[in-house]
Amino acid sequence: MAEQQLSARPRALSPVRRSVGGLTHVSEHQPTRYTIIGNHLTQHRELSLTAIGLGAHIQSLPDGARVDIRTLAGKFPEGRDRIAAALRELELYGYVERVREHTPEGRIITRTFSYNDPETTRARRAGGRPPRDAVRPPARPPRADPGLAPPPRVDPGPVPPTPPTQTPPPVPPAPDPTPAPPRPRAAPAVPMPGGAPARTAAASLLAELRRHDDRLLLSERDVRRLAPAVDTWLERGAAPEAVRRTLSADLPPDLRHPAALLAHRLTESLPPPLPAAQPTTPRPTVVPLQNCDGCDRAFRAPEPGLCRDCRESEAALAGAAA
Questions:
Q1: Under a CB-based contact definition with an 8 Å cutoff, are residues 53 and 42 in contact?
Q2: In CA terms, which of 54, 207, 222, 308 is 20 to 30 Å from 27?
Q3: Can you tell me whether residue 110 is helix, strand or coil?
Q4: Are 83 and 48 within 8 A, CB to CB?
Q5: Which DSSP letter does residue 185 get?
Q6: DSSP bridge partners of 108
């Protein structure tokens, strides 16, 4: 019988955790260059995947990094329009705030604030308690080494009585030096008939597409996701009827995903901004035609009278008579 080798190295554990089906995580230890991002962002049910990815990228950047639309469009292939729409989504749900500030030199700069947990930040600034899912469990005490003996317990002895002291008056809490961020301003709401909740002009346009074609029936979530792109069209001077005609024309016969088709058309067919209006040159004043009182010949003059030849003849006759 072979002897048991007590000094043999144990078998390394596999980093792959087996699952019944679906997703399988392969986790490696990352001592540096990692970012902690909450599931409330990565699994957000109202944000688009572009907005979720952009929010995670912004949280991974260091302080002072440039996160304007031009810089982000130079890093990723989405383009300025999709990045601008994703930033508006993140602003709407409180993950990003853009504030314009005046520098001492007289310039205007845009400062971007990134919030990794907007609900907890909003509750802290309001002076209330954070939501239940934002409360973190207390850290566990460090485990004692089993090879060391526990330290001896020392009896502190009787505690001397504390002399009574006067209770100081309560001090009001100091105000938070950081001002509360302004709430993002939504698009102007248009009241719906029949007492329905108010919608924006873009949301109303998307919801009414099913009146032109039954296959363009969108869910409330798809309407909220596509509304910022329609707002961009309207801001660039496109008429609502033109936007509706572009989205509902030449639909494929086997349309299965109307929201994906509309998102593609809103991105690929986005019109350019209108150029600035050029000043028009005033037209010259047209002198009207008049009939000569002497020879009945037509000539141009501001008021009726004699033409030039008749005026010269009368001047010659007057000179001869004198």
A1: no
A2: 54
A3: strand
A4: no
A5: P
A6: 102
Angstrom distance (rounded) from CA 95 to CA 133: 17
- Residue 103 · residue 86 · CB < 8 Å: no
Query: What confidence tens digit (pLDDT) does each residue in 117-129 have?
Result: 998 888 888 875 5
- Judged by DSSP in three states, 296 sits in coil
Q: Which DSSP letter does residue 156 get?
A: -
What helix, strand, coil percent values describe the chain, rounded to 5? Answer: 35, 10, 55
How far apart, in Å, are the Cα atoms of 270 and each of 57, 113, 177, 229, 278? 26, 29, 43, 9, 23
C-alpha torsion sign, points 183, 187, 188, 192: negative
Question: Which candidate, 93, 155, 143, places its Cα nearest to that of 122?
Answer: 93
Kindly give, in sequence order, each residue whose CB lies less than 8 Å from that of residue 178, ignoring residues fewer than 6 positions away: 125
CB 100 within 8 A of CB 112: no
- From the list 234, 167, 168, the residue with the least C-alpha distance to 202 is 234
State pTM to two decimals: 0.37
Q: What is the mean pLDDT of the chain?
A: 76
Pick the CATH number of 39-130 from 1.10.3470, 2.60.120, 1.10.150, 1.10.10: 1.10.10
pLDDT score, position 162 = 56
Beta bridge partners of 290: 299
